[in-house]
Amino acid sequence: MTARWWCELAWLGGEDAEAGVLLEAGDDGVLTAVTSGVRRADAPDAEALGGLTLPGLVNAHSHAFHRALRGWTQAAGSGSFWTWRERMYALAARLDPDRYRTLAAAVFAEMALSGITTVGEFHYLHHGPGGRAYRHDAMGEAVLAAAADAGVRLTLLDACYLTGGIGTPLNDVQRRFADAGADGWASRLEGLISTVPAAARTVRVGAAIHSVRAVPPGSIATVVGWARHHRAPLHAHVSEQPAENDACLAAYGRTPTGLLGALEALGERFTAVHATHLTGDDVALLGASRSSVCMCPTTERDLADGIGPAAALWNAGSALCLGTDSHAVIDVWEEARAVELDQRLATGERGLHAPGRLLEAATAAGAAALGWPGVGRLAAGYAADMVTVRTDGVGLAGTFSGSGAGAAAAAVFAARGSDVTNVVVDGRTVVAGGSHALLGEVGPRLRYAIDSLWDTGP
Amino acid sequence: MTARWWCELAWLGGEDAEAGVLLEAGDDGVLTAVTSGVRRADAPDAEALGGLTLPGLVNAHSHAFHRALRGWTQAAGSGSFWTWRERMYALAARLDPDRYRTLAAAVFAEMALSGITTVGEFHYLHHGPGGRAYRHDAMGEAVLAAAADAGVRLTLLDACYLTGGIGTPLNDVQRRFADAGADGWASRLEGLISTVPAAARTVRVGAAIHSVRAVPPGSIATVVGWARHHRAPLHAHVSEQPAENDACLAAYGRTPTGLLGALEALGERFTAVHATHLTGDDVALLGASRSSVCMCPTTERDLADGIGPAAALWNAGSALCLGTDSHAVIDVWEEARAVELDQRLATGERGLHAPGRLLEAATAAGAAALGWPGVGRLAAGYAADMVTVRTDGVGLAGTFSGSGAGAAAAAVFAARGSDVTNVVVDGRTVVAGGSHALLGEVGPRLRYAIDSLWDTGP
């Protein structure tokens, strides 16, 4: 059986969209043909997608449970990343597997409504209070189940987290993040992987080094070796804050990027998350090794992190991808434009990143960074993951030519999650008419999941 | 007759919302009573507003016709404010009174849908091609009619524009902006004012100095005198770009703020728009004179203007208000958080502006800057202008306590125009259930108005 969609307009790459695009997919959720210039009358049996259709958005860096902080951490007087982190730890201490699954499913569903079809969940909340292990790695299984509940494609990036800082012991909350060394981490991860059916088409497991603060060099080497052996994606938080750089230089005489380079972590399967405070040498190392960089600009605004060198990294050879990270905002359209807009604030120049390139960051580059080379384009052989935005709403009306010319700029600079009408993941409709086709009303689910954590219901 | 609304939650100032707030207004569109702690059962006849109700948002700086640039100016390679201006001029050259009214009405309706109840339209497109005067100031009348069409409260800030730059003649497009000197500007404006009925409750006319680039000192003094005589609000673009500062210093030996101060423009009725590149003396002058400052952060991002000294201005004594300016985005919620978020990027510190203060900027402070001291608060004696946002959608779900505690932070950091369900202006419902009650579907109106300008319809 073949699924067919007829798109009024579809973005197939570059700066413009094509009109009348027929997408066909097989039972395996893979596109078999993408044909432009097809009149609706010539494909009457295909499902019609009015508006503009693009490859589904890829959220390459998520901590699902941080969604429960939205609104709660911004009010409290002055502060910094580090005071924000205290509140996040208070939240982490309240989660158990059931609450984690309920919350994460609602958050992944919120993502789907905004056009996200693939999520990279950077998962570090592994154990129960005091670090006591759950049976069956219940927290990791909760993440896998939540993605299935919400119908999104998932790369679970399981993070190794061993120390509270360089040479600093774990505190009570951090004990929930830690394993018995990097070998303990690897062994738990093998257990989790064994629960994923071999035939699963929308789940992958990858590795993460939480940061050079949380993983000593010898253990970093172990994680790097594990990822190489499994040919798995490897992510790490890198230089989000100057204090991390200072501590790393003091302890190891290298920047975080320099240390990761020396431990052979960098390369095409590696993604540096944030990469905000880099030296010129760091930029050159990341670019020359073809490492990806995941920028999370709305989080970096919220946490007062600063503006990373996006244009320099691109010019050096790094692919850029995007993440909503702390979920102060869940809107990859906003992340895409924020990369460019924040560069404008930093440099006084416009147009450092072409819109088509920003859409690549939001789609294929993110998928590649999460270990899905066959995801993120509307082309034969790629997964049938797509998002459709209305072009007759107030956001996009009049923002590009009816022929499709200039559609990339319009999508990047004017689209919002609330413009999304339809989402397909692996050939299956997950959002239709702006509503979640699997879970129904998502707002009340979020509210229930969050109120039960904070005990703040009405 | 009395109109009554019962609000599930309403923000009356500060950081929290009150539960069960009954609003009552007379036929004159003025609130007569605001009562907290009222159960729904005790006000069964009142119109129920579920979610969170706030005073209507005030957009203190708009150029309505710039909406037609959204999506069209961001793609073209590298560039700056100045290349953007060329495209804007090409658009201005295509407008006539009918097209201007059609476009502006759709744009004001888009504003209403996002919760904006009062607009300050900084209006400088006064004349026909080559500077030929229309009969009856047809362009100004088009703006007045458009606001009435869309049901929003309007301050038309009529801008004096006389030179193409300091000592530079007008170019062809700029001739449409200019009058025969400041006296010609004043005389045209008196004509426009005479068309506004004395009983009009939702229209006011104020003055604007386009910039120190476009108005020589002697003419600035004339505009200042006119505004003082009429006790009218007076706005000016100030120091949006370093080049303006350089030219002003070279010609007059003063910064733009210094020049405006020497010409007695500053004071409680004055609003400096942008105020991005200020000296310490500029900040002190604006603050000591109690001048307002209108920040337009999404435009300042888009045009690579830079980040203005919002916290320093506030500390010096200036009230801050907000504008969507070029309408790359029409969302005052986004402007409010962007003031704080961009300060975080510039300083590395969070929480420089309390959320309640940012909501004041988005409401009462903006109204005051537009000459509406009785607008912008939910309190007896203030106009019945309000906006309601849903709290059960994915944006706001779980972002504050069911009791209303922390509602200001949630509204500032999580609300979006697409969360708006209901808008009331001067006691009249303008948006209901997320749809424009007067104009119906707004997207197609925008598309029609813009496609006809660019000749880009399908």
**Global morphology of chain A:** globular
Q: In what range is the share of β-strand residues of chain A? A: 15-25%
Total beta strands of chain A: 16
Give start-end ranges of low-pLDDT stretches of chain A.
Answer: none
| Rg of chain A (CA only) | 21 Å
Strand order of the largest sheet of chain A: 3-2-1-4-13-14-15-16
| Content-based structural category of chain A | alpha/beta
Distance between the termini of chain A: 49 Å
Count every helix of chain A, treating DSSP H or I runs of 4 or more residues as helices.
Answer: 15
Number of domains of chain A: 2
Please give the share of residues in helix of chain A.
25-40%
Name the assembly state: homodimer
**What is the third-level CATH name, the topology of the largest domain in chain A?**
TIM Barrel
Per CATH, the class of the largest domain in chain A reads: Alpha Beta
The greatest inter-chain interface is formed by: A-B, 74 and 74 residues
